[in-house]
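Subject: sequence -> structure tokens, single chain

Hey, anyone have a minute? Need the predicted structure for the following. Not urgent.
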Amino acid sequence: MYSEYEIRTVPLRLKSARTRVEQFLASCQLRLDAVDSYSVVYRLGEDTILAGGGLKGNTIKCVAVNDELRGTGMMQRLISHLLSEARAAGHDCVRVFTKPENRDIFKSLGFRTLATAPQAIFMENGMPGIDAYLHQLEQKRQPGKNGIIVMNANPFTLGHQALVRWAASQVDTLYVIAVSEDCSLFTATERLHMIERGCHQFSNVAVCPGSDYAISASTFPTYFLKRIDDATDTQITLDLNLFASHIARALGATIRFAGSEPVDALTARYVALMQEQLPPCGIEVRVMPRIEVDNRIVSATTVRKLLAADRFAEATALVPPSTRPTLLSYMACQALQMELDTTPKPGLVDKVDNGAHLDMNYTIMQRSISALRPALERLALMGWNDTLPQADTVKAAGIEAETEMLKATAGVNTHRGALFSVGLTVIAASHLLRKHNLISPSRLQETITRLATHLSQSHDSHGGQAVNHYRVNGALAMAQKGYETLIHDWLPFYRSLDQDPWRCHKTLLHIMAQLDDTNVIHRVGYERAQQVKKETLALLSNFNPAALEEMNRRYIDENISPGGAADMLSLTILVAAITCDNLETT
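Reply:
Had a minute. Here:
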């Protein structure tokens, strides 16, 4: 019988194919969710969809069989096909959301039920499954009256810390589980570290790593889609059922704590269903009202909005000191990304072209920024001290970060200069945050100078050679002056263009017109580099986007790439974002 049918993967990127799958699922009272691939069953020689199922990572979704094939075993054949596809993609453990009436079919193929809701069940097949995670939790289990908080902490705020303090005072042991899904503004690793540092002061708090079994795209995808529809309650119920049946039992917890949610409707619905569904399972729910700082409700959403608006000082006021280094490293990466996204740039990699580079492109530069992100957080934590780190410590950290960058870029030197300038600034800024809570430009300049004083010049680099031969100021000399020109000239210029859509482009030109860029000198010589300064000053004086495009084409042809100016643009963006003026006596 099976010989009459075939299974094919449908190219959902094609609108016509996607529409047909959506119509088929709608006829089965389902909808197309986000999937990486979708397989359908056809009768040989025909194009009517008779059955279908999709894969999203290691999760089978959107499985449906029409009435013609019910009871024929075609569902089992389709699921076996999807299992094989998942295994071929490297997934040893495969999960599925499906209707309760399909339980026996999946059970016959080795799936076991993890959670149930009136309209759906959540099952898995393979190893390592939930047992591995439960064993990990059981190692942390302590006797007594225990409670749990599950938090995303994107980022960890004073509100999160207040909730932990309040909950810890009511139990013998409080377990804080970090959501592990990597689709937040801050990475899963960053969020876990923020939670760990923010909870360190509480002796009866154990921070547990998250998993696919606690508010993840597997158990609760709506949380990450941030929408409320007819599927929301079902997904929340599955997540809560799995929590009560497995996670709470593994930790011996009988109380779940949460903060009230006055703003986000989805989180508010989750808390409401938690209060309704967990007590019958023997788990009490206690909800703490949100705290306020300066008449403002403290929430991670507010912090993210403030960061996006470059209101860094206001953002740091809503998080504990232990979170601030991570906010600082995030802002550093944002500055690098803003420089990269500035398009067009003369001779530099941007969204459209590779500039005067054969070994770099936009994708490689993005990989470099991602690789530097944990390194910049380490540098921020290094600066979070009562004293500045020694030169040899800074140098070792820089070498480690550069090694990680080169590994991510297959040896391409993408951000070595930016790592030096931005890295020093992150260390200095973090030190000032610890001592004064706020960062002024003048204090930042003075602190960078102290930090860079004992660093030594590299003579074997292209920049070092240009410094020695032409007696121009290189990266080290600029750092040892605390980026004096940036603080007193480039920073005010950048800030003056607050409403200008060409702000970054004009600031780059402004920097290029002044900077003895050792990258340009190395590529085309000192005399041509001086002409570049005059050309960019002329363009800035009579700015024209078409002329900027023409300069880019010309510099690509001439192999001119002002990488030093690009580094200084990144640094200017960062300093503008994290400093506050008029704080000289703070």
